[in-house]
Amino acid sequence: MDFGFKLSPSSAVNLDTVDRRRYDRLVQLEPDALTCIGCGSCSATCTAAPWSGMSVRKVILGLQRGRDDEVDAMLSRCMLCGKCTMVCPRGINTRHLILTLCRLDKNGEAVR
Amino acid sequence: MVNRTPVIAVIGAGIAGLEAARQLAALGYEPVLIEKAPVAGGHVAEWNRLFPDMTPASEVIRPLLEQTSGIRTCLDTEIASINRLKDGFNLVLSDGSSLICQAVLFATGFHLFDASKKEEYGYGIYDRVITNRDLEQWFNTRHDPRVDHPKAVGFVHCVGSRDIKAGNAQCSKVCCITAIKQAIEIKEEFPDAEVYCFYMDLRLFGKKYEDFYIKAQRDYGIHFIRGRVSEVGEAIDGRVVVKAEDTLSGKPVRVTLDLLVLMAGIVCNPDAQHYAREIGATVDEDGFLKSRNNLAAITESSRPGVFFAGACTGAKTVPETLAEARSAALAIHQYLSKRG
Fold first, then answer.
1. Which residues contact B76 (CB under 8 A, 6 or more apart)?
2. pLDDT tens-place values along chain B, 340 residues long
């Protein structure tokens, strides 16, 4: 039935209900992911970012906030060149982190 | 004429006053500590452990008290009036006595911001909202019905700091690292709790502070969310609902918590302003006392014979305050030596 208006879903992140299983599994495998300070060096240096929106910073943040679809879209565009690893001030092996993440489904289970 | 030992009035017996008095006594002067509270030690004596090494506050306070035990200390004493004399000052104390001294040292410290002024955070309104000081009290006494095995805890940085509307534009400097310290302590006490820190910037300038931050992230899994809490409400079960923007993702975020800790900032002490005006020293625009020179003479006022040490001129850490107290004692020594 058309009421002439519709309700938009809320874009708010509810931390009470957010599903962090994939993130929790990731930090077990890659504990350095916890030390990200969101500085954006990785995104700024990313070769794929200008045309694809890839950003390791947003990948880690997206996992913490339960935005798996956005994360997967970004991961699929990474070319694994490793420039982000070279610039990370916290020494996070971001390239390895991306590879580890690609092997986890959104429940945090290993898929390949 | 009898050659008397010069007397120095030290206003405030917190760590700045105690350390300065100790040094002045060692230099051969007669310091007199004036403290309005019934006990010496100031804010640090109320704290449980100190960043970044988790040193018990008593380890700082106890030796200071022991080494100043021979110094005349007027507790429970306020200053009724201050008069400038030809070569010194006359302080009339609240017990009616009068103290003639050759120099005055302000070690008047700071006030903790009254968190209930930020009504949107609900301190004094909701049961689960406490301040950093309340939490330290709990670490000391383990007695506060508001801290009851929380499963989710939040820390709000910058409460009354960097907030022009709250009358306090400057950064309180020590709250970022205090929040991290308290978040770690909460996590040690309640390992299953999720702990969130809501910050605008993390200002971790001091030695070992950044290591402490990495430890909080990596070893304790504390969540850091960049965004200032906009409002706090109460859920039907008495828990508190916190709303903020996660400015890194640009999305609003909400979370329900069992305990919310407000990091009340450091603001000027109104008594210090009153005494400063009476003695003819200048109060700065930020409400703290104004040094003669913020780089080279932070412990000196623009009025000869009047000196500053510690947080009366702005937010300070413990080592900064102690170093300044020693520096002020030397400045007083040079001032009195020059006068002969």
1. B35, B36, B37, B38
2. 456 899 999 999 999 999 999 999 999 999 999 999 999 999 999 999 999 999 999 999 999 999 999 999 999 999 999 999 998 999 999 999 999 999 999 999 999 999 999 999 999 999 999 999 999 999 999 999 999 999 999 999 999 999 999 999 999 999 999 999 999 999 999 999 999 999 999 999 999 999 999 999 999 999 999 999 999 999 999 999 999 999 999 999 999 999 999 999 999 999 999 999 999 999 999 999 999 999 999 999 999 999 999 999 999 999 999 999 999 999 999 999 998 6
**Residue A97 resides in a domain:** yes
Domain ranges (residues) in chain B: 7-109+269-339, 115-266
Which 183-222 residues of chain B touch chain A by CB within 8 A?
Answer: 194, 196, 214, 217-218, 221
Say if the Cβ atoms of B251 and A15 lie within 8 Å. no
Is A68 contained in some domain? yes
CB distance B249–A35 less than 8 Å?
A: no
What domain count does chain A have?
Answer: 1
Which chain B residue is nearest to residue A11, measuring alpha carbons? B251
CB contact under 8 A, B246 and A32: no
Please tell me the CATH code under which domain B115-266 is placed: 3.50.50.60
- On whether residue A107 sits in a domain, the answer given is no
Give kind and range of the element (H or E) at residue A95: helix A94-102
Q: Structure pTM? A: 0.94
Residue B32: CB partners within 8 Å, gap ≥ 6?
B7, B8, B9, B10, B71, B72, B73, B74, B99, B101
Task: Give the range of the structural domain holding residue A43, as residue numbers without chain letter.
Answer: 21-102
Question: Which pLDDT tens digit goes with each residue over A32-87?
Answer: 999 999 999 999 999 999 888 899 999 999 999 999 899 999 999 999 999 999 99
Distances (CA, A) of A18 to A13, A64, B37, B151, B199: 7, 8, 48, 16, 21
Q: What CATH fold (topology level) applies to the domain B7-109+269-339?
A: FAD/NAD(P)-binding domain (3.50.50)
Do the Cβ atoms of A36 and A93 come closer than 8 Å?
no
Using an 8 Å CB-CB cutoff, list chain A residues near B253.
Answer: 12-15, 65
Asked, for residue A7, whether it belongs to a domain, the answer is no
